[in-house]
Amino acid sequence: MSELILFWHRRDLRIDDNIGLAAARDRSPKVVGAFCLDPQILERDDVAPARVTYMIGCLQKLQQRYAEAGSQLLIVRDLPVHAIASLAENLKAKAVYWNRDVEPYAQQRDEAVSNALKEKGIEFSSFWDQLLNSPEQIHTGIGKVYTIYTPFWKNWRRKPKPAPVATLANAENLTAEEREWAGIIALPTAKDLGFIWENELLLPPGEKAAQDRLGLFVDRAIEAYQEQRDFPYMEGTSMLSAALKFGAIGIRRVWEASKEVYEQARSDRSSANIETWQKELAWREFYQHAMYHLPSLATAPYRPHFKNFPWENNEAHFQAWCEGKTGYPIVDAAMRQLNETGWMHNRCRMIAASFLVKDLMIDWQWGEKYFMQKLYDGDLSANNGGWQWTASSGMDAQPMRMMNPIAQTVKFDPEGEYIRQWIPELRSADPEALVAGYIREDLCAAVDYPQPIVDHKLRQREFKRRYKQQKQLFS
Ligand SMILES: Cc1cc2nc3c(=O)[nH]c(=O)nc-3n(C[C@H](O)[C@H](O)[C@H](O)COP(=O)(O)OP(=O)(O)OC[C@H]3O[C@@H](n4cnc5c(N)ncnc54)[C@H](O)[C@@H]3O)c2cc1C
Q1: Which residue, 137, 167, 231, 444, has fewest beta-carbon neighbours within 10 Å?
Q2: pLDDT at 180 over 80
């Protein structure tokens, strides 16, 4: 009889191009999948209903994919240290395999599971899968973690990238007796878990939808990516972030697709556009490497002068920001896009985040948490990196940036299309005035749209003053 290998899925909800799963299949034909609904994750106060809905959808698809491959994906619900170790023991698994993660909680969890397996005498193995180059492969000349993106990119791009690995196929299933193990549950819906998300997801869950989206993006938009990616009213980006967060698509497949289209590019312009997209994949890796090596980033600012920053933390202002009622249309449109779709365009993530921190002077960690409560692609490393970068507390070569919401609108939503899409009550406003941020008071009153809750110029000055003072304290 073949030995049984249990493959523990976490943020790799696919059977194609999955390093750990392929290794398990290489070792034995009897590979069974497992997913653990972990209360320590699901009961946190920053879990987005849209994200859980996408994840459960991916798990449904993954169960189908396992069935097609001849095996099964088992669902358990408890702390992984109990659930995974007991499952492996009850199934008499020879070994448990999984793919590694960079997040501090994941690392502690995996260590606890490794110890529990060791005690039971069950083998285990883990693999790097979610990154093209692992955090151990890339470091500065003196062996340190990169804290500035450009040198990271220059080094990262030169490193060889692995090719996709084979899809799980012709696996052996559990016997009827093995299947009777009581700890396995049916896959619940997101609603069963207490998460209600009624709106459509931008990208449907599962491997096929992610592969189709990648195909569409490389066929159409990638060659104009650099030119279009900053305009939030265009569909100029891949919208693959949730698929990459949950591993509905393998990063090697994504890289391979971008490389193929790069090799076929017919002009320098096309190549430059494609390379800009590859640089975004490198940003994803940059932040994950940073999180792996500097886990304190998850809870504290990278730059010391942001510790004890004199934030204003006005609750009413925070509420207005969350609801998209600040009186700054581009900020409000962005927040409403987030609330309604669980996704926000990258340019708008920067504008909305900058406004919260630098105009409202609210602690970036409040914003970081709110984004996690809403984003269906919410990812600790990318979200934390994005917030710290925007707040100027993080890894940015430029020490202080300030975004003017009006100047950003003029540049990136010059006709006010994005604003009108997300703030329907402003559709009748004069487009030029809308973009310039001068909406007539009587119109605002008639449609119940607020006047700006703060004055950008005054707030900019005040933020700079506090920033300078804080820097002096720490110099
Ligand atoms: C304040 C703030 C918060 C953010 N929070 C998240 C988050 O929780 N999850 C998340 O995946 N991204 C986050 N980002 C990064 C970025 O906004 C999204 O990855 C991007 O908008 C997703 O859209 P896309 O898939 O169409 O991206 P594309 O432009 O098509 O980029 C391709 C992929 O590259 C990665 N990527 C792109 N930009 C970045 C970046 N700046 N940092 C890290 N990875 C990047 C993503 O995986 C993305 O899917 C955040 C950015 C900011 C400024």
Answers
A1: 137
A2: no
207-293 placed in CATH 1.25.40.80: yes
Alpha-carbon span 52 to 47, nearest angstrom = 8
pLDDT tens, position by position, 318-331: 999 999 999 999 99
| Residue-level pLDDT at 1 | 80
- Angle (CA) 73-77-83 rounded to 5° is 85
Options 3.40.109.10, 1.10.579.10, 1.10.490.10, 3.40.640.10; CATH of 304-474:
1.10.579.10
What is the residue with the minimal CA distance to atom 31 of ligand 1? 280
In CATH, the number for domain 4-129 is 3.40.50.620
Beta strands across the sheet bearing 30-36 = 73-76, 30-36, 4-9, 95-99, 123-127
Distance CA 30, CA 25 (A): 7
How much distance in Å is there from the Cα of 189 to the middle of ligand 1? Answer: 27
Q: Could you give the CA distance from residue 21 to residue 32 in angstroms, rounded to a whole number?
A: 9
Over residues 434-457, mean pLDDT: 92
Instruction: Enumerate the H helices of 342-415 as residue ranges.
Output: 346-354, 364-374, 380-391, 405-412
Of the residues 156, 321, 366, 387, which is catalytic?
387
318 C-alpha vs ligand 1 centroid, how far in Å? Answer: 23
Tell me where in the chain the CATH 1.25.40.80 domain(s) lie: 207-293
User: For residue 358, what is the enclosing H or E element?
Assistant: none
Closest CA to 348 of 364, 361, 362, 332: 332
With a 6 A CB cut-off, is 59 part of the ligand 1 pocket?
no
The burial class, CB within 10 Å (0-12 / 13-18 / 19+), for 250 is buried
Atom of ligand 1 nearest to the CA of 375: 8
* Cβ neighbours of 194 (radius 10 Å): 12
The amino acid sitting at 55 is M
C-alpha closest to that of 102 among 239, 260, 290: 290
**Residue 221: CB within 6 Å of ligand 1?**
no
Q: Is the pTM of this model over 0.85?
A: yes
Indicate if ligand 1 lies below 6 Å from the C-beta of 237: yes
Spatial distance between the Cα atoms of 98 and 130, rounded to a whole number of angstroms: 11
